[in-house]
Amino acid sequence: MTQPSLDDLLTPLRVVSIPMRVRFRGVTEREVALIEGPAGWGEFGPFLEYAPAEASRWLASAVEAAWVGWPDAVRDSVPVNATVPAVDPDAVPAVLQRFPGCTTVKVKVAERGQLPDDDVCRVAAVRDAMGPSARIRVDANGGWDVDTATETLRRLTAYDIEYAEQPCATVEELRDLRVVLARNRIDVPVAADESIRKAEDPMRVRDLGAADIIVIKAAPLGGVRRALEIVQECGLPAVVSSSLDTSVGMAAGVALAAALPRLDHACGLGTVALLDGDVTTDSLTPVDGALPVRRVTADPDLLDRYAAPPDRVHWWRERLTAALELA
């Protein structure tokens, strides 16, 4: 891959801070850095707590987008799921209205400070709002131990769960959970997310039989091409997801989903709808439950409107510098 210099990256760098419509994974303001290169715009948006080694993969994805471009697509649109944060059940209908045409919903569960009862009530509200034909998946972000995951998923089978995403934190726990679920005839497939995108060796999920499905994200895995390599090597069905990206970052996820030879599940690429703003006037938000496959150009006026203060810009410039040293 073409490697731009530090000056190439810092000179066009724009940092934005966009408010969230609802709190999501603890985030109320989404900060990202945007870079324009010869191939277009790229997004460097690792969450604030991520160390340079992990952030370097996000930078590689941004460089791919801005300096190289993406592989050819095999489809021109990508089906997406709605995403329901860990809100109260009575807030569910309003959240779902932001995802017109979506027939699959991902529900956040295992939120810190909440109980399994809260999760069950939220999923029940989604099923009530969406009807019997919708697909519902849950995402615990590794927040359960094996016993809690087993009991909660047993209760959630009443709502016909498509799969549980990262129900436990470690690959070994995912493996053990799959065994326990099978022994107890709890028919909920297990999907690995953090165990793929945060792992030094993502193939351990495959080698230990720890998942039925893998969740892949372009930015945390180092770009579209690297993510495609992981899917091919792993050999499991893949769901493409996002990381609270602006439309610039979301375009990379859409490019990944569009390039996958096999796409059996709706993708978690509708989260621009959770932002109370964007960096383009033509946002990548679902229409009839799908996203078009296209590039996105940042709008100068919106970059100015959501510009982060100088101290945050300095912080992101230092962060990019540290990440580039490890790229």
Explain the overall architecture:
The radius of gyration is 19 Å and the shape is globular. The strands form three sheets. Strands 5-6-7-8-9-10-11 form a seven-stranded parallel β-sheet. Strands 1-2-3 form a three-stranded antiparallel β-sheet, sandwiched between helices. It has twelve helices and twelve strands. Helix 2 crosses helix 12 (310-326). It folds into two domains: 6-70 and 301-326, Enolase-like, domain 1; 77-298, Alpha-Beta Barrel (TIM Barrel), CATH 3.20.20.120. The protein has helices spanning 6-10, 52-68, 92-96, 116-130, 146-156, 171-183, 194-197, 204-207, 224-234, 247-259, 300-305, 310-326, and strands at 14-24, 27-37, 40-44, 77-79, 82-84, 104-108, 135-139, 161-165, 190-192, 213-216, 238-240, 290-292. The longest helix is centred in the N-terminal third of the chain and has 17 residues, at 52-68. Helices cover 37% and strands 19% of the residues. It has 327 residues and is of the alpha/beta class. The model has no long low-confidence stretch (mean pLDDT 96). Strand 7 (135-139), helix 5 and strand 8 form a beta-alpha-beta unit.
